[in-house]
Amino acid sequence: MPDRLRVVVVGAGASGTLAAIHLLRAGLPLELVLVDRSGEFGPGRAYRTGDPGHLLNTAAGKMSALADDPGHFARWAGCGAEDFLPRGEYGRYLAETLRATERAAAEPLRAEEGAAAETLRAEEGAADETPRTDENAADETPRPNENAAAKTLRTDESAVAETPRTDESAAAETSRAAEGAAASYATGSRPTSPTTVHHIADTATGLTSSSTGVTVTLSRTGPLRADFAVLAPGVGTSDPLAGLLPENSPRYVSDPWAAPLPETGGAPVLVLGTGLSMMDVSVAVARDSVVHAVSRHGLLPQPHKRGTGPEPSLPEPPKRGSLGELMAFVRRSVSANPDRWRDVLDQLRPHTHRLWRQLDVPERRRFLDRVGHYWNVHRHRAAPTTHRRVRELVDEGRVRLHRGQVTAVRPAGEGFHVDLAGPRGSRTLTVGWLVNATGFRHDGGPLVRDLVADGTARPDPIGLGVRTRPDGRVLDERGLPCRIFTLGALRRGELFESTAVPEIRAQAAEIAATVAAHRTR
């Protein structure tokens, strides 16, 4: 067994950052390599926004990055547990927590180096006072390569202490350092210090697993060998207009979180989707433009709201039962506490994974088709301020909700004619911009598609992600676990609720525990 494990985290947004934090806190002799094409480690796309009107959809008291310290984020922010803070603040918190954890993981190394230096100086002093019979021979005796060790330590410390920057010069500097680091990894050499962290700004284009380790192929810097990999692609975005629009249409925003939204010039905007992302887009865009929002059911997420009086006591959900029996249980619980339905759903949260697993595949499909949209708008609720503002915009006519789906898109000057089909018939909207806010990308992107194609992974039966063990290890086509972990969105098919911070941080802690258990074997 190597002195320490090398773990590569592919994707350093929120999910990858949470995985990195928990791996570093596990107390392992570890070499952790974070790979992300953006070169920005911590916030990811969803929490990079600089718009103060984009608020977290969960109260601060439930957003801690640390599974064993639920109040960590609220203390960092100096706010109340029930406050809803800007999403950009949470991105800064993730980045700072990662850096602080990296520094803490390196502290034992610095203490060890200091003790070693003291020992070396003491030995040299004693040697100076000891008569030597062959000074020339002593001079030729090999000694520890102090210069090389110091150089390694300085490199590791600078990698740990460096604050991510987004300006072009910092990005170029990071890229050069990353390419040099990745090139050294390709040779299989490892630094000698107990815990080091390396950031690589590059794109992972390949990932293979064997019985002894993994190989991550990077587009610019070649293969990187490791003991384990953590695949954290984030939620991504689907593209419902693929094939309906010319490629690179300048007025189609396929991912509203990839960059700041453009100025609309007052032209009407059609947003695809009526969920939480649409609400954030509307808060920003409806200042200048009328926003049309379309989805199959045309439902807005419900707002968070603090209940009054004692929290209802919910009996434990049945350990066995069909979808119909589980739905009957939820209806009875809500009927008994009609003003506290939010508490009822929140108390179901610890049981969600078990309830999902006890449904067979046809029942899971039936739930998603018939109940999923109602579950989403009640379970994944909006910040009260955001919901109130969007309702005001709806009342003012600046946000207009449509039930239906897009059937055709045609150019119209600088904008588009968009045909909608819904329960009340068809209609055509003329808009200047299209914004995609439909939510999750189910295939995980090219890297995951390649894993499925070569048999390293297999999709879950309902097509929401990939099959995994309870500890997050990906199952191959034979149903055997490999050395690739995943967390978050790619586990939706097996866990259903797998994209909120409380679920992701628990999965990150489980990954760290599994890696630690492997290290002690």
TrEMBL record:
Gene3D superfamilies: FAD/NAD(P)-binding domain (3.50.50.60)
Pfam families: NAD_binding_9
Bias-annotated ranges (Basic and acidic residues): 120-143
Transmembrane segments: none
Domain FAD-dependent urate hydroxylase HpyO/Asp monooxygenase CreE-like FAD/NAD(P)-binding: 8-113
Region (Disordered) location: 105-197, 298-320
Biased composition (Low complexity): 169-189
Family annotation (InterPro entries): FAD/NAD-bd_sf, HpyO/CreE_NAD-binding, L-asp_N-monooxygenase_NS-form
Protein name from the UniProt record: FAD-dependent urate hydroxylase HpyO/Asp monooxygenase CreE-like FAD/NAD(P)-binding domain-containing protein
